[in-house]
Amino acid sequence: MAVLELEDVSVTYRSAEGAVPAVRGVSLSVDAGRSLGLAGESGSGKTSVTSTVLRLLPKSATVTGRVLLEGEDVLTMKWGRLRAVRWATASVVFQGAMHALNPVQRVGHQIAEPIRLHEKSVSEPTARKRVGELLEQVGLPSRVAQSYPHQLSGGQKQRVMIAMALACGPKLIVADEPTTALDVMVQQQVLGVLADRVQDLGLAMVFISHDLSVLASACDDLAVMYAGQVVEQGPSDQVFDDAHHPYSRALGGAYPRIGDLRFRYAPSGLPGDPPFPGEAPSGCAFHPRCPQAREVCATTDVELRPSGERRWSSCLFAPEVGT
Amino acid sequence: MASDQQTGGAPQGRRAIARARRREALARGWGQFRTRRAGMAGLGILLFFTLSALLAPVLFPPETISVTRATGELLAPPSGEFWLGTDDSGRSMLALLAWGARVSLTVGIAATLISMVIGTSVGIASGHYHGFGGAALQRLTDWVLVIPFLPLAIVLATVLGGGSTVTIIVVIGVTSWAGTARLIRAQTLSVEGRPYLERSRALGSGNWHQMTRHVLPNVFPLVLANTTLTVAIAILSETTLSFLGLGDPLRPSWGATLDQAFSNGAVSAGAWWYIGPPGLCVVLVVLSFTMIGRALEQIVNPRLGGQ
Amino acid sequence: MTESVLEARGIEVTFRGRGGRPARAVDGVDLSLGRGEIVALVGESGCGKTTLSRTLLGLERPSGGEVLVSGRPLEYSAAALKKHRRSAQLVLQDPTGALNPRRSVYEAVAEGLRVHRFDGDERAAVADALARAGLRPPERFFLRYPHELSGGQRQRVVIAGALVLQPQVIIADEPVSSLDASVRGEILALLLSLRESLGLSLLVVTHDLGVAWNIADRIAVMYLGRIVEQGPTEEVLSAPKHPYTRALLSVVPEIDHVEPIVLTGEPPDPTAIPTGCRFHPRCPALRDGAADAVATDCRGKELPVLSGTGGHEAACWLTGA
Known about the structure:
The structure holds three protein chains of three kinds. By secondary structure, chain A is α/β, with parallel strands linked by helices. Chain A is 31% helix and 24% strand. In chain A, the strands form two sheets. An eight-stranded mixed sheet of chain A has the order 6-7-8-3-9-10-12-11. In chain A, strands 2-1-4-5 form a four-stranded antiparallel sheet. Chain B is elongated and about 75 Å long. By secondary structure, chain B is an all-alpha fold. Chain C is of the alpha/beta class. Helices cover 33% and strands 21% of the residues of chain C. Chain C has twelve helices and eleven strands. In chain C, the strands form two sheets. Chain C has a seven-stranded mixed sheet, with helices on both faces. In chain C, strands 2-1-4-5 form a four-stranded antiparallel sheet. The longest helix of chain C is centred in the middle third of the chain and has 18 residues, at 181-198. Chains in contact: A-C, B-C. Chain A binds chain C through residues 41-42, 153-154, 183-189, 191-192, 210-214, 216-218, 236-237, 240-241, 247, 250-251, 253-259, 261, 263-271, 273-274, 289, and chain C through 44-45, 150-153, 180-189, 192, 207-210, 213-215, 233-234, 237-238, 247-249, 251-257, 260, 262-263, 267.
């Protein structure tokens, strides 16, 4: 059964210039023990999508559609129920581990915080024991609990953040660019820890990143977002190596395969810039930057259609599959 | 602004557009300021006092505040002729207050200018120079900050020769800059950490260029907000110093008027109109500047939030 | 190998580290940048690559060794530094931070001209630099402010600001790491085209081996203040000699993956550089026994400094350095 299911979710921000649609009709689902990579550039709406899961969006945002967490609609939950669900059922690993930890509290105390909040009856020794176990799960010695954040390296802090996200035994983890500020070596360690947890504990994970190569190596499935819509979805290796949408192809090509001479002295990118939210072009929103665009692309509205075995693309020229 | 100027204009067109942009930014700031009730109230009070100060010579000719040519009874309570009564020389209190506004506002604004120039220069320099110079300036700032204001001001006023408005302005100016310097130093340090300063250094720019082109524009909004708060302090200081007899005896500032009221026994005579109104004027003007300053501070420094 | 426009010779930079122990951020580096050459300086954060690039720009004064500009030692008088900074320009990682939010594009680009008291047509020079950086027509961007531009456009403005002084060398510190994926290739292509059209030399400081593969002629891999392997990009990245380079390559996220070599042990600390080969406490070759034959050398014998000019070389006892 799907742990998380998004059905036709749209997010609109009210601003001084009027309504700004940041997410436009996104449907996704993640099963237990699987990971979904959500790729997209700044302003593509990927963070808005995942913020709906815990209803972490600012007041100026209106969300429509359904966000089902273990079959229960998060958007219609009462406040008390929502608080219980936050962290206990679904938790978040935030991007800036450096800033998300309180500098004047010991790390162990901060990991124990969600445990104490959600299980009022938990005793101090039990909580401490759980913190030690959690740290070991993410590959850190349990004595790290006694450290302050500034005594840890960037990778260690990010692992502390993961331990914190695991503290209440969630069913779903949302990881928002968890490795962006880290070195490649450390990034690999953190990705490894996340992948192991997903497998061992049978968690579902949504992993957000702008880096398609990281997502492809860390996730089972990929969904690529552009201008508030999912433009391609499918198994990671297939989307990365044989994209059905020109945009995913460009994203994949932005990170060269080292050793492949086609990429030598040939960095590939796209002309132009991603559109600002609310200024998406007509038809296929990608058409002004698309190397394969034809006239119909500017006038025909597109939506995600099956383009192969477990694959979907919104490109008008993606492979057709009998419906 | 014509669009052809925007796309291909000569340098003059460029400056004109830069000016237009500045105007636009000012208009936006004014739009925000207008929504802040306290700031607008402060502005209203300030306008009233500024008008009185400007119109004092017209409404109350100089002879009305001359001790020898005053027409009223001595220490007369408010009446139809003298709305706020008279002082112990028979001068109209209302005239005295209007003329007092001239002195108080002049001293307040002039002293603040001195204080701001010193405070901003010292603050930027002590934040920019990391070596001995910066440390020395910082120590100097701390030192001025901890010296009690009143004894220092009294000593300075005596040394510079008391009894003139200019002395009062200088004394207040050179004693009140330390707080500003500290604030500006902190902001300078944060600006100094930005990559665009690194870039500018890599371009080969010198200290003067870095401080005037990059640091100053970024600390300036803070200087502006701080100015209004300093004016309030300067006016209060002027009142204090005049009350202590260090002001110009020939100019009826609010502090000097209060001083006279006390030394002539207005309290024991029950002449409330002699003591209350000058005090109230000081409070109102100081309050108006503070309210304007707070509002400006919130606009230029969004982190303070909507409190 | 053409003549070198910028060269580090035996550069050492020492800072006062935590607890007063000296931190040897750069600890003996030879590296030369030829005319029209693109060199990638690669390493993890804290390896000293940024300090080395700042030293080459004259922003940091080396505690040992010297910087050679077109063969002559760089002097540290104010006038000589100013002259050097006209010919060697810096492009920073984060274009948002590198532009003063209160100054327009025109002012940002013209800043270098004003600093160096350019006496030609400022407007034409700015327009030319913007056009070369790919912002066309340049006049349209003159009066924009940084917040009105996209990330890629901002980085182009920063590059234009560097180009306006017609430098010989550009040192780019992580020029694309804060940019969106689709914009990244465009900026790299721009850097490549500048080499073609202007004959610029380029030192790209990056942690991203992909960037090196995309544009660099030569690559130098840095670890703990030293260059541990360097040579032509194809050779180094296709057939790495040093175990550290191999480990770095193995963790580049890709789909059909070699087994990642994740390094264990303490993260490198410039205040306590190990004896012998500085990589030996974390070296996978030493750990799995592949380096048993030279193990005593690895632990105790100092390696020579790599020449930093010609062919493929590695500072590793295994390769018989």
